[in-house]
Write a structure and sequence with these properties.
Two copies of one chain form a homodimer. With about 500 residues, the first copy, chain A, is of the alpha+beta class. Chain A contains 14 helices and 23 strands. In chain A, the strands form five sheets. The first copy, chain A, has an eleven-stranded mixed beta sheet. Chain A has a five-stranded mixed beta sheet with strand order 16-15-17-18-19, with helices on both faces. Chain A is globular. At the A-B interface, strand 2, helix 2, strand 3, strand 4 and strand 5 of A face strand 2, helix 2, strand 3, strand 4 and strand 5 of B. Strand 5 of chain A pairs antiparallel with strand 5 of chain B, so a sheet runs across the interface.
């Protein structure tokens, strides 16, 4: 591609200046182009899109295995739909893009570009669901949504158009709805940790930070070594908050009419991709789980005059051996040195590089370099297939072993604001007592924001009891143990 | 699903009233729901979406095999981009939905919901393409587009939001661009005919019917037994019409700067799905190619008191035998009769139904019914796997043999308007002489529309010479042999 020649590698260390590192990685590994002439909108480039498509495929397969069926909804929603649930419209109104005209015609009613699909879907759900036999009713769609973000945008992390999956489910009882929320969390761990190697932890968010219209919001925070967290998929118990205004009812076994209990779940694939780039990458560029890499193995010939043909022939032999099983690329172009090629493919996170030079041809050997572990190994050509098979199987496992760290190592229990402030400065996550997760604690949360530059992430979903007697801010009785962290 | 109980089968014959048949099939097979509260926008239901996703997968795989890489572009395009190519904006302006505000803010410049992506992409192409080494440059994206259609909408066929793939390619020479147009046509035949069993023929469209901004447009018309055609994928030679205003240039080998030659190709997957439903379906409902069916085999137990358990056990045995290879559903619910189940799954186009009753258990036999050929066969349970394997392999082949008819059988050569009128009434496609495909022939084309209620589809791409001496309308010298047909 055009930019290739300008690639000079990343010029800052990730640990020194994450923001600059991330910008350079996105540009130099050709993941996104920020030069599109509309603020907050970017072009996602092939190298990112190929991985994103694989992520969608894995996620959709898991959702379907768990009983969700796909559908496709219109992306435009009449404004009147929005006004049916008041806290939802209040929460989303500042973020909505409005379509007001088409051709030469001005519309009487504005149409929202969906920021999320509750208000489109649940109007249909009231037509589709009639009896307890229709329940549980589980649907998902893979689509983009638009949100007029005020905050600074960052490619993949936060954009005004992003690509997600949204699952919307209806149940006969609150108990079943709560079980779905648990399943959503399990799916999140299965995908983010097991498939994408992203360490996460689930928090029940405080009431002031929940999804507009939800009873409760459970959100995964991805953990970075810097101690800052990134919000990833969230699942929401909507209860009957939407089924009442949207009339999502069913006739139960006892012939009585009841409101359905609704949950929704929204993994933002483009954002997860960004988190993966941010968390797995190193000073040489991006690192990808083996399954997700657009090219899994690159073969680079070491070319010298006189031995070119022999070397290329051996490279083609290796390519032929591996290409049935893996995505392999033989990079034989002659306008780049071998060293430049090494840097380029490391930058792009190709898991294995195979180098073959004139001496290797003589000894019938290929040198295999592991992008993540940096291990370099001379492998007999006869054993190459078997070696790669095993190394490929272990690649993502090694990545996970290294990247999925114990949440506890980041935590510091604090009793005073002073202690908490220091802990945050030391890149720790603070664990402390808090008045509550309810709206009565908003004032204390504001103190955390202004004094610590950090946010109350909520109560850990697996936390069994409250460990503290008093709120770290106001000193009143603590109802909850919460976690406080800086966030991207 | 909720509607199931209301399914009573299609109440009209396809040949008697296609429009009513299509509406009933879409509703009763649960392909789309037209009750969404915004005109021209429909909800695509799981049964259709599962097939549509498989169609996307096949198409994307073929595009990638032919050297196209995927990308994702913003769906909003600043109005100024549109004005860069004058005939393009003129053609599309009446169809564009405009975003004019977000949150509480009114925009200074309107943003188009993309009706197609040329004006977003080519601005980026001018940044991405620099040298002949970047060429050919082949990209595609799978996305939706929005067009404010004035014509009556029909689910899948014509909607204000539809789902397509758009490929946009840049070449160093016109010759290479023309080769891409040929490859696009080949891909169309490979997908539509070989995979989806839809008979098509490619026409070079007249100048008055080409894509806004193109040099030439080549469009596939799908052929229906009624003689009416449906426009399906089209590929456009844009030449340098867009590369000049958008500055898509490259440095050639001789160091001179040149404009790239652009082609674009737009298979509308949701529309192709509609054509497939329309063309392959019969009076019992829809028919699907084997690969695309959401459920490929349904097992229906014939239940009587006293033998229920035995029968169900045998059904489960059949299910276990087949589910590793195929998408199998055992329909054991007890609130529907076996006959109702037969009708339901025929309506939904499941390729094979396996019936097992008490007598079959005794003789260790299953009855396999083919949805398309209607063939019914008692198969020894021990042979069931092998029988289904072969029947599955042949299913789509039989469909194609029956549905891919010879274009020539529909054609009637005509010398006078009177003859042509009769031919059109007799559901034929007219082949005749025409002034030309240029703008000088627009008046004659208008006569065809008003007098015959039909349209000049263009020159057959494989037509080698002109067969007629004079234009069927004005009698002047005919430069071209054209085809005239009614269309959906």
């Amino acid at each position: 591609m055009a930019e290739e020649k300008d690639i000079k590698g990343i010029t800052v260390k990730k640990a020194d200046d994450f923001s600059e590192w991330y910008s350079q990685v996105v540009q130099k590994a050709e993941l996104a182009d920020l030069r599109y002439n509309l603020k907050g909108f970017v072009c996602y480039m092939p190298w990112a899109v190929i991985s994103i498509k694989k992520m969608y495929e894995k996620y959709e397969k898991l959702l379907e295995k768990n009983g969700h069926l796909p559908l496709i909804m219109p992306s435009l929603i009449p404004e009147s739909n929005f006004h049916m649930e008041s806290s939802h419209v209040e929460g989303f109104a500042p973020q909505v893009f409005w379509v007001t005209e088409a051709g030469n015609e001005k519309f009487e009613e504005r149409l929202a570009l969906r920021p999320t699909s509750e208000t489109a879907l649940y109007k249909m759900y009231s037509l589709w669901i009639r009896s307890y036999k229709d329940l549980p009713f589980k649907r998902y769609q893979s689509c983009q949504v638009w949100r007029y973000e005020g905050k600074a945008t960052r490619p993949f992390f936060r954009a005004r158009e992003f690509h997600w999956i949204e699952a919307h489910n209806v149940f006969a009882t609150e108990e079943e709805a709560r079980k779905q929320v648990l399943q959503d969390m399990e799916m999140t761990y299965q995908m983010l940790e097991q498939e994408f190697s992203i360490p996460i932890i689930f928090f029940e968010r405080p009431q002031w930070d929940k999804f507009a219209g939800a009873v409760s919001t459970y959100a995964a925070d991805a953990l970075t070594e810097s101690g800052k967290v990134i919000q990833l998929p969230s699942t929401h118990l909507l209860g009957t908050n939407f089924s009442k205004p949207f009339n999502v009812k069913f006739i139960d076994k006892d012939a009585s009419e009841k409101y359905g209990f609704i949950t929704c779940y929204g993994p933002a694939i483009s954002r997860i991709y960004g988190a993966m780039v941010a968390i797995l990458g190193d000073d040489k560029g991006i690192v990808l789980p083996f399954d997700l890499a657009p090219v899994q193995i690159v073969i680079v010939p070491i070319l010298f005059k006189g031995s070119k043909e022999k070397v290329l022939e051996k490279c083609e032999e290796a390519e032929a051996m591996l290409k049935g099983m893996y995505s392999v690329q033989l990079d034989a172009r002659d306008d780049m040195s071998a060293g430049e090629k090494f840097s380029k493919w490391e930058l792009k996170g190709v898991p294995f590089r195979i180098e073959i030079g004139p001496k290797d041809v003589e000894t019938n050997v290929a040198v295999v370099v592991n992008r993540f572990t940096k291990e370099k190994k001379a492998v007999d050509m006869k054993q190459l297939g078997r070696y790669i098979d095993e190394a490929a199987r272990n690649y993502t496992r090694h990545l996970k072993e290294k990247k999925l760290f114990d949440f506890n190592s980041l935590i510091q229990k604090c009793e005073t604001l002073e202690e908490a402030k220091k802990a945050i400065e030391n890149k720790k996550i603070v664990c402390c007592g808090f008045c509550s997760l309810g709206m009565d604690a908003v004032k204390c949360a504001e103190v955390i924001e202004t004094d610590l530059g950090a946010f109350v992430r909520g109560r850990k979903v697996t936390e069994e009891k409250n460990h503290f007697s008093s709120c770290i801010v106001c000193g009143k009785k603590a109802k909850d143990t919460v976690y406080i962290a800086r966030s991207y």
